[in-house]
Write a structure and sequence with these properties.
GO terms for molecular function: hydrolase activity. Helix content is about 30%, strand content about 20%. It is of the alpha/beta class.
């Protein structure tokens, strides 16, 4: 199975890399402290190769959320260097349900392959990968360029972020996406 895109113009989707996710009091314990380093490496590689980069920002409708447009946490993190070819804003999990219309833009640009990175692994990144796969895109999920937070199950058990990450990888790989690494995506 291919671990890297096969077309000349895969788009890099950088999802919800926002300052508000630094609020540990609000979100809880996170995993993957190297996530931002891997995201920066992907952006740098895509920009150096003049490949399409899409930034996605979550504009929460909850006024108490660090991601609400009135909050400083809504801002994109400084590691998102340069200008993207497209900035999508959304208030739901899938980047395909935002504005402007990501699917329409990808079709207009004749892009059939996507590389997904960002925050959080098991919410907006996984949902975008699932929808992208359902829409017929070849999706590559850069697992080490995502992070998530511990979550409490309906039964009250705390599920570790690393466990959630592995479940996401298992759910996606071979069904909705190819789970891969930053190293595989940035090597020549």
């Amino acid at each position: 199975m291919e671990q890297t895109p096969t077309t000349a113009r895969p788009a890099l989707l950088v999802i919800d890399v926002q300052q508000g996710f630094d609020d540990a009091e609000y979100w809880g314990q996170r995993n993957n402290p190297d996530c931002e380093t891997h995201i920066a490496a992907l952006i740098q590689t895509w920009q150096a190769k003049d490949l399409p980069v899409v930034f996605v920002r979550h504009d929460s409708s909850d006024p108490e959320s660090p991601l609400h447009p009135s909050s400083p946490g809504n801002a994109l993190r400084p590691i998102l260097s340069g200008e993207p070819q497209l900035l999508v804003t959304k208030s739901v999990n899938s980047s395909f349900h935002g504005s402007p219309d990501l699917h329409a833009w990808l079709q207009q640009e004749n892009i059939s392959e996507l590389v997904i990175c960002g925050v959080t692994t098991n919410h907006c990144c996984e949902t975008t990968a699932r929808v992208g796969g359902n829409l017929g895109y070849e999706v590559y999920f850069a697992l080490d360029a995502t992070h998530t937070f511990d979550r409490t199950s309906p039964a009250g058990a705390v599920i570790a972020a690393d466990t959630l990450r592995e479940v996401t990888a298992t759910n996606l790989h071979g069904e909705f996406a190819t789970v891969t690494t930053t190293a595989a995506l940035t090597s020549d």
